[in-house]
Every structure is written in structure tokens, then in C-alpha cells.
Specification:
By secondary structure, the protein is of the alpha+beta class. The protein has one domain (3-112). The chain has four helices and four strands, in the order αβαβββαα. It has helices spanning 3-16, 35-40, 86-89, 92-112, and strands spanning 24-26, 49-54, 61-67, 73-79. The chain has a four-stranded antiparallel sheet with strand order 1-2-3-4. Helix 1 packs across helix 4.
Amino acid sequence: MTKERQAELIHDACRECGLDGHVSWLRSYKDAVNGAEKLCYSPFDRESVPIKKSFMYCDSLDMCFFYDQTGHACVSYSGRSTLIQPDMKDNKLVEAFEIAKKVLTKMQELADKE
């Protein structure tokens, strides 16, 4: 599957799961800003990598959706929280990972049709 097609599938999966569908491209490891983005880029991948960055409605959680080199749907994440922050006390982190699972499931379903 081409990288351009991966970008389309990421967009479609995110939109279907209620997230914004804007996909950006990591052109090199230097373009990665946060921990989640850095986990998307493999040193073995010499091409640009399409990713969907999302804060997942949390104050301190970054997630990125992408396909790995074998075409499997992936999510990387980084963040921090304390017991008194809404992310933790209001279960926003749990909800974020439930949404992430839906997005990954849809991404993989779309990829498997290719």
C-alpha cells in the first residue's frame, strides 16, 4: 500500500470514529516534535510517514495514528497525569484509549481490504 493510500485510510478511519481527519507527514525524525511523533518514525523508513496527531480530548496526552512498515495499524502515545487532573479523575485517559482502539480497528479493517 502506498504512503498516500495510508494517509487516505488514516483520514477515513479517524473521521468515522469522530476525530478530525487532518493527516500530516513526518519527513524525517527531526520533524517529530513530541514523544508520540518520535515513536512513529522508524530509522529504517527512508520515506515520509503519514500520521494523524491527536490530543484525544485530554490535557496531557499526545497520540499519533500511523501504519508500520508491514501495513499494520499503530498508535503511539505519550503523556503524563496526576490524580487531581481531569484526565485521570474524570476517566478521560480511559476514554481516549477506547477511542484509539476503535480507530485502530477501523484502520486495520480498511487496510485489510486493500
